[in-house]
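FAQ: What does a ligand-bound record look like?

Like this one, built around thiamine diphosphate:
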Amino acid sequence: MRLTVAQALVRFLAVQYSERDGVEQRLVPGMFGIFGHGNVAGVGQALLETPELMPYHLARNEQGMVHAAVGFSRMRNRTQLLACTASIGPGSTNMLTGAALATTNRVPVLLLPSDVFATRVASPVLQELEQPSGYDVSVNDAFRPLSKFFDRVWRPEQLPAALLGAMRVLTDPAETGAVTIALPQDVQAEAFDWPEELFARRVWHLPRPVPEPAALARAVEIIRSARRPLLVAGGGVHYSEATDALRAFAEATAIPVADTQAGKGALLWDHPQAVGGVGSTGSPVANALARDADVVIGVGTRWSDFTTASRTAFQHPGVRFVNLNVATLDAAKHSGAMLLADARAGLDALRTALAGYRADVIWDASDWNAEVDRSFHLDHAPLPSQTEVLGALNELTDPRDVVVQAAGSMPGDLQMLWRARDAKGYHVEYAYSCMGYEIAGALGVKMAAPDREVWSLVGDGSYLMMASELVTAVSEGIKLNLVIVQNHGFASIGALSESLGSQRFGTRYRYRDAASGQLDGDVLPVDLAANAASLGVDVIRVTTIAEFRDAIATCRAATRTTAIHIETDPLAPVPSPQSWWDVPVAEVSALDSTTAARKTYEAHKRDQKPLLGKATTPFGGTSP
Ligand SMILES: Cc1ncc(C[n+]2csc(CCOP(=O)(O)OP(=O)(O)O)c2C)c(N)n1
Ligand SMILES: [Mg+2]
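The answer part, i.e. the structure of the complex:
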């Protein structure tokens, strides 16, 4: 079949399917893109010629389109993904942050950056980086360390292998992440005689590996010995659709279940064994259980520093980990007993093998629940608190609505306070915690779940970083709900800075003051509500929580993308998670605030454990 490389690529992608538990779906049901000279006549021409093969969505920022693709695939539990085509040079390098985000989150996206001429007849092409050390280096080599698979199609003959390699990695739950196929501009337009079999329908089975009997026996022995076990549910529980299996496991064993940012909703908040988030922004209930746990069962978690409170969360002298994970990278962490398996298959196997085992752990969440209610109804004045905004959303949105967030002070407040009422209702990207994901990611979430209302909660900092995909949502008629939380700068890093003795330096959005020479002058005349309106979004301005609560219903009922703009007090109180996060403080300083913070820092450092199997050993200390 005589087609160009780009036409062959589109034709191939259109017939790839995923299959899990007998359900087949198109693996790549659409493509985002922004055209330039690198792809307009290559991939762009192919999309024009065969629109029935591949729906095309014009994005506004290449980073944003990768975020949207991540939001989409995460919402579909990695059973489907989107491709992204970008032009040469800046169009492609704009996708680097998205690539890193996808790989960090272990979410599949197919990136198709355009590349310099393979033939080099016209070199240097516009936007070509010329490396004197080697003409085969292009800016796209920067994708290599960020991608789980990278190939560059210098010749048409290489395309089939590149495509099959890409599909293999995208559909491998242990390996998945950003997959990049760089496409030189001239090669995209080059014709070749392809074998018909390249375009045969292919079904990629998403595996559910079962645990090895010996590994299962080891894990069971450790759990049976546990007096105070705790299970930590990560994103893998969602991706493998293991929430029912988790609930059955928890109820059979009476083990309390904490969750991570990606795992929230694995067990719904009102289940008697759900103890909330664990770690730096977790609930004090889960953190107290973590402190004393002798066996910690991690399911589908990558054990980030927020989850382990920078390795201070687990203080039991003999704490042991059992890690149920598809990836050896994560299963091996903290010298854990590795249970390499799909989360659902592994939990089912553990439940059966643990028959008769009942944990005897006691906790009381009533004080904490009252504290959450209090922070949801703080009546903070004159400006409302962010916790009241989140509380109103948690109480007045539908359980199936989805909140999307990524960076700033909201992820912490959300992990601590948000009550998950639906497994997929909470979508906080906290592996890369990338400002700018909130709107773009929400676009992808809504594309994946058009039957749900999607709420992008966006701080003023994140909004200014990247609101571009609002225009994509407007043009596509994809309805988003937006809550713009204006607090004139970084509430998050401001509070962090203060706690580290750095006096909130450089964290406010202010005019430079002539007298002080610092950015601590008046508030800027920035009007994000007007900005959103200028992009075609309907905007509701509110100033009180009562107005905000009313606006939620108006926003939900709207058919067009609608934003609620509210100003909050960045200094309003937030409950304490009774935890810590390791951010090193200057060891020597002329500032009293820094010196005092360093003392506190050193005290916390003493709680930090290497988690090498001898948990009592402090770093640099000796084993008991
Ligand atoms: C792309 C990117 N740059 C920098 C950071 C570091 N950072 C984390 S939160 C934050 C401030 C976020 O401001 P805003 O969105 O207004 O949220 P707020 O802290 O006020 O809640 C910054 C700069 C980041 N997470 N992502
Ligand atoms: Mg802010």
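Follow-up question: can I read anything off the structure? Yes, for example: Residues 610 and 619 are 6 Å apart (CA to CA).
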